[in-house]
Design brief:
Layout lengths: L14 H21 L15 H15 L6 H14 L9 H19 L2 E5 L5 E6 L4 E3 L22 H19 L2 H7 L5 H24 L16
Antiparallel strand pairs: 1-2, 2-3
Helix pairs in contact: 2-7, 3-4, 4-5, 5-7
Length: 233
Amino acid sequence: MALRARPLTSKQPSESDETLKIIQTDSSDDDEIKDLPKPPPSPPSSAPATLRQRAVSQTLASTANLANLLPTGTLLAFQLLTPIFTNNGVCDAATRPLTVILLLLLALSCFLFSFTDSLKTPDGRVFYGIATFKGLWLFDYVDETGSAATLPDLSKYKFRFIDGVHAILSVLVFVSIALRDKNVVNCFYPQPAIEVQEVLDIVPIGIGFICSLLFVVFPSTRHGIGYPVSHPK
């Protein structure tokens, strides 16, 4: 009796075998990724400031500190009135002349206030005046008792050459502050050329540097309107 050969059936791969192959493939891919060299670290987004940038920032900060040498009333008027007169930097035929007049008046106040001084009497009263060639001429002093014994020697407050130097320096400091104000610059130079922009960037820094040196060499001893009150000399 002849035996019939049983047909061979091909073994189908099971789902577990396919899953094992996928896991092995993924693990091999992970090993290959780990073996790849790591890319170099990316540079920081903001590079450290260069020496020139730090110098410019320090100079601008020193120029801003020069505002302490100006009368507080003048600075307050400049900060409050400039946006109004310049229409926030958008000037026309009417606001531009008004802005010029405002800047001239503020510069004149810086010049005149440099000649003012104050004194505090022993009884606590404070008087303001302007320096003349003979002494200090007081604005608000009224001699009620008929005796000026409570006042110090006013001839010590007379006008000196250094007062004129301080007056000119105060005007220059005000000019440097005005040139750094965006409303003033946009009013007179809405679209400045490259050369004009360079001048606007350099001139205030130069003025601030020179004036800071001169104020250190020739310090002011007066404490007039807008400055702290001085005691009898």
